[in-house]
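User: Here's a chain of 100 residues. Predict its fold as C-alpha cells.
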Amino acid sequence: MPSGESLEAELRRILEENHKAFVGKYKDEVNELLGLSREEIDELTPDATDLEVYDRLITVVKAASAHNLKQAQLKERILQLGGIAVKIAKKIPKLAALLG
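Assistant: Prediction complete.
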C-alpha cells in the first residue's frame, strides 16, 4: 500500500485496476484464461507450480489489458514468465498467435 493511502483507497484503486483489465485491450484473453479448467492446467505439469505460474500469467495479461500495452510488450512479459506460462498462454488462440 502506498504511504499514506488508506485501506479503503487502496481497495478502490485495486478494484478500478481490475475493472480496466476486464474492459481493456486484452479482455477476451483474460476471460479465456480465467475459463481454463484445473485439468487443462494440470496437463502441463503435475505439481502446483503450474497454478502459481497460471496466476502470474493472469496477472500479466490483466495488467497489459488495463494499460493497453502493445502486443510486443505483452509477448515479452509472457516469455519472461518461462516455458510453463508460454504453454498455458498457447491454450488461448489469440495468445498462441501472438507467441507464434
